[in-house]
């Protein structure tokens, strides 16, 4: 612990992830990082840069290009007392590891009646906006949110990436930690490297408002905040909530906001059908139907694979798309 230095400087989300990994590995020698190219190359986006040099090859492990093996290895490590932080290079490459996530990581505690747990974190870049081909631009968080025993966390700012990743590594059960690639180098903010954890399973209210609730997570928080600013110029007070932990959902915070404003728009980059937005909408209808003054609207990507980069901006929900949905709920008779 004597090697820990508290520093404050502006860092982007990618740098905040790197800082949190350094902090976690310094605090706990059981934390190990593994994945394809995480060591010598520092990861495809350089999120693990410098870890190999500082902590050695036994704690920062370059693995073969084999996601199935990587998933099984992480589960085995976690079951025997280590805290593996595994990286999948892009979310679209995760499907080969799903067997281990669904059949083993998520249910190890239940299967052994609490004798074993699975304190692993799976990190992966997610989402479109970086001019990459398909399988590099997926937003399939709903797949993991459906699995009992998995937590799903998606930060939308450097500060939340730092605090939530540290909390995820501490958690005694598996966490899917998804990092929006188009936010990796956007909007640096001061980060105090003090090891402070942010709470999991909690929404963050980014902007108070009284006329309308805007709910989002991940990269779409960026466009949602832009839309809230445009609404303010029109005299509309929008409350903006970053869900952050989409499994479990902090429905109490969402319900309280919707009861206050009476109107709600949900924004996410994932495809519309069976998305997390539908789960939030259904839950809010169950809890707060009589306080709603208009039907809840969803602004999402269409039900197609992420397109090549020339069409990316048509695929990703824009501030204009969000404003159109806001007009529907604000003008509902």
Automatic annotation (TrEMBL):
Cofactor (UniProt): thiamine diphosphate
Pfam families linked: Transket_pyr (PF02779), Transketolase_C (PF02780)
Annotated ranges, domain Transketolase-like pyrimidine-binding: 11-186
Domain of life: Bacteria
Keywords: Oxidoreductase, Thiamine pyrophosphate
PANTHER family: PYRUVATE DEHYDROGENASE E1 COMPONENT BETA SUBUNIT, PYRUVATE DEHYDROGENASE E1 COMPONENT SUBUNIT BETA
Protein name as it appears in the record: Alpha-ketoacid dehydrogenase subunit beta
């Amino acid at each position: 612990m004597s090697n820990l230095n508290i520093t404050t400087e502006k860092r982007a989300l990618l740098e905040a992830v790197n800082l949190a990994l350094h902090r976690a590995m310094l605090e706990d020698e059981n934390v190990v990082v593994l994945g394809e190219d995480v060591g010598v190359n520092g990861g495809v986006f350089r999120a693990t840069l410098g870890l190999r040099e500082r902590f050695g090859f036994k704690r920062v492990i370059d693995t073969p290009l084999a996601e199935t093996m990587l998933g099984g290895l992480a589960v085995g490590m976690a079951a025997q007392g280590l805290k593996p932080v595994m990286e999948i290079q892009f979310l679209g490459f995760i499907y080969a590891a799903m067997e281990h996530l669904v059949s083993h990581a998520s249910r190890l505690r239940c299967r052994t009646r609490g004798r074993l747990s699975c304190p692993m974190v799976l990190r992966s870049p997610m989402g479109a906006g970086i001019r990459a081909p398909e399988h590099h631009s997926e937003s399939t968080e709903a797949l993991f949110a459906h699995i009992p025993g998995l937590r799903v966390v998606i930060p939308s700012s450097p500060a939340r990436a730092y605090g939530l990743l540290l909390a995820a590594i501490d958690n005694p059960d598996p966490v899917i930690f998804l990092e929006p690639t188009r936010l990796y180098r956007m909007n640096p903010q001061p980060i105090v490297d003090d090891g402070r954890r942010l709470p999991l399973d909690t929404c963050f209210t980014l902007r108070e408002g009284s006329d309308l609730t805007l709910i989002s997570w991940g990269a779409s928080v960026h466009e949602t905040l832009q839309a809230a600013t445009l609404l303010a110029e029109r005299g509309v007070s929008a409350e903006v909530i970053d869900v952050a932990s989409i499994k479990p959902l902090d429905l109490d915070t969402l319900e309280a906001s919707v009861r206050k404003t009476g109107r709600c728009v949900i924004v996410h980059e994932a495809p519309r059908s069976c998305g997390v937005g539908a789960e939030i909408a259904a839950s809010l209808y169950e809890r707060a139907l009589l306080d709603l003054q208009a039907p809840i609207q969803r602004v999402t990507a269409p039900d197609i694979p992420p397109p090549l980069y020339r069409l990316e901006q048509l695929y990703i929900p824009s501030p204009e798309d969000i404003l159109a949905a806001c007009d529907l709920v604000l003008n509902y008779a």
